[in-house]
Amino acid sequence: MKVYTRTGDEGQTSVIGGRVSKDDQQVETYGTIDELNSYVGQAVSLMEGETFEDLRQNLLEIQHELFDCGSDLAFVKLSESKYKVSAEMVERLEQWLDAYEEENPELERFILPGGTLLSSTLHVCRTVCRRAERGVVTLGQAKDINPEVLRYLNRLSDYFFVIARTANVRSNVPDIEYIRSKKVFGNKK
């Protein structure tokens, strides 16, 4: 099988049910999700040993679900019966979020992306996820989309933030506080 088809040489690409310009918002959005999936794969490759096995398994599942997100956005015209991303996937992310947040120290100030290489990579995942989310919002203003994709990406970016902190905790590396930040989290009086 040849990888190249030459069908995109004029700036068009196939989506499910038709062809669109390669710079179409639909292609931009699922392309950003594909970029995110690559960074998730990079994060997975940094997780060695038992310390991160649960996170590694979660991220492998998320990689499949990111393909589902892209699939849901790749249709010219969707029917709800073909949606892959569901409310149950969002709820599971919330459960994971709650569990991993328990491992992390309370935040008082904003933190800088960093610490370990794994944590830094997970912060990159978070920011690319937010960009994908913005793309889904823009796409949703132009065409009907599965609303669960937007909810999923919103929760997923929160998940990346939380597990980036968990990766530092498990590596005994503190988060780096933004020194110009006032105390904005925790007990407010």
From TrEMBL:
Domain of life: Bacteria
Keyword Nucleotide-binding among record annotations: yes
Domain Cobalamin adenosyltransferase-like residue range list: 3-167
The entry's keywords: ATP-binding, Cobalamin biosynthesis, Nucleotide-binding, Transferase
Pathway participation: Cofactor biosynthesis; adenosylcobalamin biosynthesis; adenosylcobalamin from cob(II)yrinate a,c-diamide: step 2/7
Keyword Nucleotide-binding: yes
Pfam families: Cob_adeno_trans (PF01923)
EC class (word): transferase
EC number: 2.5.1.17
Gene Ontology terms, MF aspect: corrinoid adenosyltransferase activity
Record field: catalytic activity: 2 cob(II)yrinate a,c diamide + reduced [electron-transfer flavoprotein] + 2 ATP = 2 adenosylcob(III)yrinate a,c-diamide + 2 triphosphate + oxidized [electron-transfer flavoprotein] + 3 H(+); 2 cob(II)alamin + reduced [electron-transfer flavoprotein] + 2 ATP = 2 adenosylcob(III)alamin + 2 triphosphate + oxidized [electron-transfer flavoprotein] + 3 H(+)
Family, as annotated: Belongs to the Cob(I)alamin adenosyltransferase family.
Protein name (Swiss-Prot/TrEMBL): Corrinoid adenosyltransferase
Organism: Paenibacillus dokdonensis
